[in-house]
Amino acid sequence: MNQLLTIIPDIIQTVELIQGEDGSAGAVKRWKFLLGGLSLGMDKETLAINDDARSVTFKAIDGDVLLLYKAYQFTIAVRDGLVQWTILYEKAFITAPPPDAYAAFAIMV
To answer: What is the pTM of this model?
Structure first.
């Protein structure tokens, strides 16, 4: 995903490996990105890589997303030429919006 820095530099500002080995479960990366005109950040841990299912699961462990959601996890799966993003989240408070902006971000990348 570091290639995204060169492909869409107007959206992805920085990606930094802060723990573990890149491309491995347990790795943690710090992302800085633009979303809705705001500069935001997220530390995300790679929870699982499933080569057979062609999927990767990530979990937010720090950053702006956790201001709205107690838990935020997403899985990217590639099947038959299609990319499927699945977002699992728990609102931090009752009036927190659904993560539509993050879903739109997924479409952009």
So the answer is: 0.86
Least confident of 6-10, 53-57, 60-64: 6-10
Residues near 73 by beta carbon (within 8 Å), at least 6 away in sequence: 47, 57, 58, 59, 60, 87, 88, 89
Interatomic CA distance for residues 101 and 109, integer angstroms:
13
- In the chain, the N- to C-terminal Cα span, in Å, equals 9
Q: Which domain holds residue 43?
A: 4-108
Count the domains in the chain: 1
80: region left, alpha or beta (phi > 0 left; psi from -120 to 50 alpha): left
